[in-house]
Amino acid sequence: MKIFQYLLATFVASFMLVGCVSKSHLAKKEVSDNAKLFNKPSDEKAGLYIYRESGIVGSLTRKNLYIDDRFIAESSPNMFFYVEVDGDKEYKISTESEFSNNDIILKIDKNKLYFINQYIRGGVFNRGANLKIIDEKVAKKAILNPSMELGNTFK
Fold first, then answer.
1. CB 129, CB 97: distance < 8 Å
2. How far apart, in Å, are the Cα atoms of 153 and each of 9, 50, 67, 81?
3. CA-CA 20 to 30 A from 51: which of 63, 82, 99, 138?
4. What sign has the CA pseudo-torsion 41, 150, 26, 32?
5. What is the pLDDT of residues 25-83, one digit of tens each?
6. Which element (helix H / strand E) includes 83?
7. CB hemisphere CA count around 54 (13 angstroms)
8. DSSP secondary-structure letter at 151?
9. pLDDT digits (tens, 9 = 90+) for 99-130
């Protein structure tokens, strides 16, 4: 009986820790709500939103995101990221995919907001990912979904 109690306590403790770890990559709710206001970026900067909606394909898949080959975040479904970057520059935005990264090149003007959708697609051995520039109205509607949460970025 003692062994059963020990195993049960270990299982419950492990389950609680896994729950904490899985949310550690998310920003605080207040920060997420503020990012959903779509405020004008800081002077000489541009705002870049990268978001990923949930879907049937790849719902458990996490994929890395990069700006100019610098890791910024690991995405999962119903997650978005907001990063301010220097305006009037060209950037390579990349996502990890099945065999290599998929990139888009984006010319960014200062004082503007840009929206990129990361989507998951089927692959040969693993799920792949790709990026698509999205219209502001469509992207804002997706990001304002109550289930969409702001992820932490690594700058």
1. yes
2. 34, 11, 11, 7
3. 99
4. positive
5. 788 999 999 999 999 999 999 999 999 998 766 567 889 999 999 999 999 999 999 99
6. strand 79-86
7. 8
8. B
9. 889 999 999 999 999 999 999 887 666 778 99
Q: Is residue 120 a contact partner of residue 127, using CB atoms and an 8 Å limit?
A: yes
Token code pair at residue 133: 């520039």
Long-range contacts of residues 37-41, Cβ cutoff 8 Å, at least 24 apart: 38/113, 38/140, 40/111, 40/113, 41/84, 41/87, 41/110, 41/111, 41/112, 41/113
Residue 22: which H helix or E strand, with range? Answer: helix 2-23
Query: Beta strand pairing status for 128-133 and 113-121?
Result: antiparallel
Give me the DSSP letters along 33-52.
HHHTT-PPPPTTEEEEEEEE
40 is written with which tokens?
A: 């004008």
Q: Is the dihedral of CA 8, 59, 74, 23 positive or negative?
A: negative
Tokens 């419950």 belong to which residue? 12
Which amino acid type is present at position 120?
I
Q: CA–CA separation, 18 vs 23, rounded Å?
A: 9
| Residue 105 in tokens | 């090149």
